[in-house]
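We emphasize that the prediction below concerns an isolated chain of 347 residues; any contacts that depend on oligomerization or on bound cofactors are therefore not represented. The input was used exactly as deposited, without trimming of termini.
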Amino acid sequence: METSLTATDPLQPGQWYDDDTYYQILLVAPRQTITQGKYIEATIVTKKRGEFKKYLLDKKTEQNLIDYSPINDDINHQSIACYLPSLGVVFPKVFLDALFLEKSSQNHSIEINNFYEPIRTLLHTRKISQLIAKTWYCYIKAKTSDLWYEFVHGKWNDIDSDILDGLIAREIFFFAQKSSPDNFVPNNLDIYYPLNNKSNQKTRFLILPTSKAWQGITLSLLMAGQAYYEIEQDGETYYHQISQPILSTGEIVNKYGIEVTFNKFEGDIKELKVDPGNSSIAYQATIPYPPIPSEINLSLENITKWSQAKDEDGDFPFYQKNEDDQSYLIGVEYFSPPYPYIPLSCT
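Result of the prediction step, given as a token string:
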């Protein structure tokens, strides 16, 4: 759908689903030349949403995203385009039905402001903490076996995808502080600058080089579930999602710039001074990624339990269903880890 450019940049209905709206993904691959301390090659791919319909997801990613709600322009939900823009974390429909009861719909904004938004933010916190724990678990498993050698030397096909996802995510945490992406598709930044003005709607969902979020773009795209690596199967190329969405595309573009600190166990959010008219974000979020504690202080068993905890049921649920009346308990007792030394995120 073609839309005219206006000075006010109006939000058009369904604009985010237009085939000619631009999006970014992070594409990760093994480094061709082994460099100590840097084991992945990161490419930012910027294309129109319609072009991402050709990027087919592998079966495991499709299964992992079964609870997410893509639009119906791809009946089988088989492409990356179906999950652009990213929704971020999602709640089960039954939970939302319990929260937004029809009898309270006259004050729908009350439920949103007092329940949905705060609970969603706490779920962000939990998910990022669990992702950090997963990277720790996968690194320990890899270092105590042959998997680390295979990872470093690019033999990714020999590694279970769950372990590989954690190892790659760990490298992205480190990558975010070390350098800018290795490559860009298109192979320069020219695509951003002709589009870099407030009147062009097609760039609404891009992190632009002028934004303060650009410095942490690799980690931002990981957090939004917009980070993938290629898998070759039966002569076809498929894309495997490294981590399920935590933040939405809108949040990484407009709200949060993300950076990492390696010497703290607590995160931080700082409100930014933004110059009027410049493309930027409102907050700088610092995610803690400290060294893995010793076995004496934090056992691998406890790291594993937290990293694999389900949102509903299990030992550390985020919410629970009351089986007597099918209502939901939203005390969110476990938005933070039940063990010491596992960092709590800040969003």
